[in-house]
Design a protein that fits this description.
Elements lengths: L7 E5 L4 E2 L5 E2 L1 H14 L3 E4 L11 H15 L5 E4 L5 H11 L6 E4 L9 H12 L6 E5 L1 H4 L5 H8 L4 E6 L2 H4 L2 H4 L4 E3 L5 H6 L4 E3 L7 H12 L3 H18 L6 H9 L16 H14 L3
Parallel strand pairs: 1-4, 1-10, 4-5, 5-6, 6-7, 7-8, 8-9, 9-10
Antiparallel strand pairs: 2-3
Helix pairs in contact: 1-2, 3-4, 10-11, 11-13, 12-13
Length: 293
């Protein structure tokens, strides 16, 4: 596989669900989503990550999702698999079960819940990297893991070719990180996207881009053309919808919007609960507004 450039607009794919309490994967809808985003021209796909309800998937489901995405996206866009666990051994087993597939790498958060030291985080990532020839994308998401990747830790990992990029979800470092580390920074906080791109971020792994990928691609183009006036106008128009897409636990509202667009059902796996009716109505109103952008 050719070396992947981690830049542009990447979609962290939802996992369409069906059945009582989201018990089964809607396989037809998953294939439909992949075709939809490939046709939109996105730069890459992340499968079985946070937005894909990755922690609620079993091993067979994760394997099927990643394998299917690789097959359907072959020759069109790279696929990265989300893996993660509280313990290093479990994360390593996830990688081992997927490592024969033609994926572009793994999106990996620090061990969650345990809140290890920076030394422990370094050990975790180095151990995982030693078990695969595929690159790892760091994933700093303190809200979910309870621990933050320090700049010095990121720099240390960036000095090794096994670590290819970082998805940064903490709003505070986003404006500084692109100038502080020698690896591509991908914005993971949708509300900070324009600021991150202006600061030098290479792109985004954006949950909200599920809904209007064309607007995200347009925004990135405006920034690359240094047309900041049009970029700011466009992004200001996108913000009301983005806010609503994160008003309830991700990916609850994203799936509600996709259901309104006819791309999949709004079902989520328990203990996540479906989008409230009031928010769903509000999202539908904002979808109409964004049609003019």
């Amino acid at each position: 596989m050719n070396k992947v450039t981690f830049e542009g607009v990447w979609i962290p794919l939802v996992t369409p669900m069906t059945g009582a309490n989201g018990a089964q994967i809607d396989r037809q809808a998953f294939a439909r989503l992949i075709d939809y985003y490939l046709a939109a021209g996105v730069n890459g796909l992340v499968v079985a990550g946070t937005t894909g309800e990755g922690t609620l998937l079993d091993d067979d489901e994760r394997r099927w999702l990643v394998e299917t995405a690789c097959r359907l996206a072959q020759g069109h866009a790279p696929v990265v698999a989300g893996v993660g666990a509280a313990d290093t051994a479990s994360a390593a087993r996830q990688i081992h079960r997927l490592d024969d597939l033609p994926i572009a790498g793994y999106l990996v958060p620090p061990p969650y819940y345990l809140r290890p030291s920076q030394e422990g985080i370094l050990w975790h990532y180095r151990t995982l990297a030693a078990g695969t020839h595929k690159p790892l994308v760091l994933y700093n998401v303190p809200l979910r893991t309870g621990v933050t990747l320090d700049v010095e830790t990121i720099r240390e990992l960036a000095s090794h070719e096994a670590f290819a990029a970082i998805k940064e979800c903490d709003a505070h470092p986003l404006t500084r990180l692109p100038s502080q580390v020698a690896m591509p920074v991908l914005c993971g906080d949708d509300m900070q996207l324009l600021t991150a791109l202006q600061a030098g971020a290479a792109g985004c792994i954006s949950a909200a881009a599920h809904v209007r990928p064309d607007l995200y691609l347009k925004l990135l183009r405006y920034v690359r053309e240094d047309d900041m006036a049009r970029a700011a106008t466009l992004f200001n128009g996108m913000k009301p919808l983005i806010r609503r897409l994160f008003a309830e636990p991700n990916p609850v509202a994203i799936k509600a919007a996709l259901a309104s667009l006819g791309l999949c059902t709004s079902a989520v796996r328990r203990p996540l609960m479906p989008c409230t009716a009031a928010l769903h109505t509000d999202i539908d109103t904002q979808l109409e507004v964004t049609m003019a952008l």
